[in-house]
Design a protein that fits this description.
The structure is a homodimer. Chain A has about 250 residues and is α+β, with helices and mostly antiparallel strands. Helix content of chain A is about 40%, strand content about 25%. Chain A binds a DNA duplex (30 and 30 nucleotides) through helix 7. Chains A, B: This is Crp/Fnr family transcriptional regulator.
DNA sequence: CGGGGCTTTGATGTTCATCAATGTCTGTGG
DNA sequence: CCACAGACATTGATGAACATCAAAGCCCCG
């Protein structure tokens, strides 16, 4: 069996971080950059399908996604799974566990991923020395809250057709922003869609088929190709975000 | 028509804040207390049923609930409503709007409420001067995220019976912690329950009737009386929180 | 006494879950 | 090269869960 996670001692310095070049992200000041550089302890490479973090664990680390993507989820005792959100480049992973001690959800990789590793014990010194960064972290937590509010609205009150449309547009938009998908293709299974939206796999499949018959999308070899994003957005009542640059660590 | 909101210039100084006495909350240090006292600009009294904050607004304030309770919700264009969480004494309200500019949800009072009013323009100076308090705010945001993750699991993957059981135990536990309900009674309508759980009012009613027939609860004059919290918790797969003291502002 | 908010109930139909089977593709070992 | 298993997608049949519609009851308040 091959290793599913591999830690390396800071192979990529923050000065060369590819995220800093991306339009959506707020770039760093000199001394902030230098501090984050020291705050970062290394890189973690994770294989597709591997578990990054597990519910109930007391992990001494905190991460920023550098490349690839995954999802956060929770389980009921009998195995029912709810995907709670997706994590993409620039997203902070494990903050909740850092603050509250124990992870309340798990994270699994949907593709090969790499993550920056931070020491959660040093988080408070960041708060003391760089209030701007502390503010950024709260901003990031707040953005997560917004997304969760939206998901609740979707899962609770939208129809299956609206749900699928919403989810795919939501993911595609985020993926584009963080530089993941440039051809409108998303590599996830219908089971992931079902577990995000709170509907069964079979019903998900039939709902996707309805959207495909309208030529809004096409499902092909383990992924989804969005053909008409506007139509899906219209169906879902989805509106694009503000376009303001956002912080990251 | 009577006024639904009334602002008074700091009628209650933080030194006498009733929340500081409660077991669940972490108490303040001297200079922190003094700073928060200056950060607080006044008190807001809100009538039952009134809107505290409205989606889309740019509110210059940030609040902490002092007494009473309410709920956060979002609407779809056609009027479908999703209640996203409840707010109770000690909870921070409006943080998301403070950080991201525009409120992404509304808040309505379920009872007479009073709130501490803070100036969001001064939030960053709090981050600069009191990193401990900044850390606390992030902690609070993170706790909200946890609750939302749980709600998603409930709305997405639990059955109607489990949903109702979960919600009522969840609310009762929080209410007890923040000193709202001491006799196991919750003053909310079945419409609120329905809009929280993503099910219809009629089905909610019939599900509540099932729980009532098992003597787990009783619905009486516009409220719910929980008779057997353990049975509901068991049904819902609910487990009590850690019991660690939590911060507030 | 009438009206409005909330709850309750029954009837009916749709959405969705569940079950079961089949198809396709991919990788693996003989 | 073929046989095989495993992951994922697809399809049809059936029933349960849930939504919707409609009406009636209760209670408080003006």
């Amino acid at each position: 069996m091959t290793k599913e996670q591999e830690f390396t001692h800071k192979s990529l310095p923050c000065q060369q971080c590819p995220l800093r070049k991306r339009e959506v992200f707020r770039d760093f000041e000199g001394d902030e950059l230098e501090f984050v550089g020291r705050f970062k302890k290394g890189d973690l490479a994770v294989k597709k399908g591997a578990t990054v973090l597990v519910e109930g664990a007391h992990n001494p680390h905190l991460y920023t996604v550098l490349s690839g993507w995954g999802f956060r989820y929770k389980l009921l005792e009998d195995g029912r799974r709810q995907i709670v959100n997706y994590v993409m480049p620039g997203d902070l992973v494990g903050l909740q566990g850092s603050l509250m001690g124990e992870m309340k959800h798990s994270v699994e990789a949907l593709s090969q991923m790499s993550l920056c590793v931070f020491e959660k014990a040093e988080l408070f010194s960041l708060y003391k020395k760089f209030p701007e960064l502390a503010y950024d972290i709260t901003w990031i937590a707040s953005r997560e809250e917004c997304m969760l509010d939206d998901h609740l609205l979707t899962v609770g009150r939208r129809t299956a057709l609206e749900k699928v449309a919403y989810l795919l547009v939501f993911i595609l938009d985020r993926a584009r922003q963080s530089g993941l998908s440039r051809n409108g293709t998303l590599a996830l299974t219908q089971q992931h869609v079902a577990d995000t939206l709170g509907i069964s796999l079979v019903h998900t499949n039939k709902t996707i088929a309805r959207l495909a018959s309208r030529n809004h999308l096409k499902w092909e070899d383990g992924g989804c190709k969005i053909l008409n994003q506007e139509a899906l957005a219209e169906l879902a009542g989805w509106t694009p975000g503000s376009g303001v640059k956002r912080p990251f660590l």
